[in-house]
What we know:
Layout: E1 2-8, H1 13-24, E2 29-36, E3 50-53, H2 61-71, E4 76-80, E5 84-85, H3 90-95, E6 105-110, E7 115-117, E8 136-139, E9 151-155, H4 171-181, E10 185-189, E11 194-196, H5 208-222, E12 234-238, E13 243-247, E14 250-255, E15 260-265, E16 267-268, E17 271-272, H6 275-285, H7 293-305
Parallel strand pairs: 1-2, 1-4, 2-3, 6-10, 7-11
Antiparallel strand pairs: 4-9, 5-11, 8-10, 12-13, 13-14, 14-15, 16-17
Helix pairs in contact: 6-7
Amino acid sequence: xxxxxxxxxxxxxxxxxxxxxxxxEDRSVDEILVINNKPEIPxxxxxxxxxxxxxxxxxxxxxSWNFGVSKIKNExxxxxxxxxxxxxxxxxxxxxSDIFNNETTGLIGxxxxxIKLFDETEYTLPEIPAETKAAFTPLRRYLSxxxxxxxxxxxxxxxxxxxxxxxxxxxxxxxxxxxxxNNKINYSITxxxxxxxxxxxxxxxxxxxxxxxxxxxxxxxxxxxxxxxQKPKQDILQTAEFKIIRKGDICNITLxxxxxxxxxxxxxxxxxxxxxxxxxxxxxxxxxxxxxxxxSSKIAEALAKSQNTNG
Length: 311
């Protein structure tokens, strides 16, 4: 059986409620632990398999995973985002697979190829035939893994306590890395479609300073496997309204008139995200205010045009 752990700050409650319903009907799930990281608002959800923990303050994602894994009753766990939806018996298909139960396996996540953005007001749940078995491909990297970490499956013995100074991002990279250096093979699921809203919580402006600190703190945890030859190329895009510094998959967007800097993951490998998605994420960081709509579009257009200049 599998214990599911879902941290939430209650951004999309209808999606979370639907996800919990799907998991409650999954025949491999007998425990769902939701961590309410918005303690000032009680979480109005119920279910036979559901337990809600409400800490005194926001633990953020990675400490919530640490806490959740320490509390569950099963050896098998799944760490799921609260802004995603899955097919029927999603967990069962993975738990019953040979890969999940192989001693050489570390962690299993989701390939970006099966993640679909969706409209939360009008969508169709993924329909996967009951006889379909989960398919996997080895994941050779531990950084630049896209949205691999929206659903992570594993066993307690392969979960490593994430350092306290990584709050929101790099938690999945850290546990991937620890499994990799301990001779485990990590995998991506390649045939089970997931719907995902993308950065609903982490894309909020209030979390930008925490993400900035995560980026700085991460450098001490991954340097063992860094390539010594070449540092990520840093490029600068600048107009009168904004300045963008691109380094690797992350960019810093400085807005002089607003006296603020935003931190955004804008590409995966050599592939810059689509302009429409970038615009939406930038607007979220700016608080979804109408006066920033045009500015968000301009910044997104500048980033999208950089597709052909990043190698």
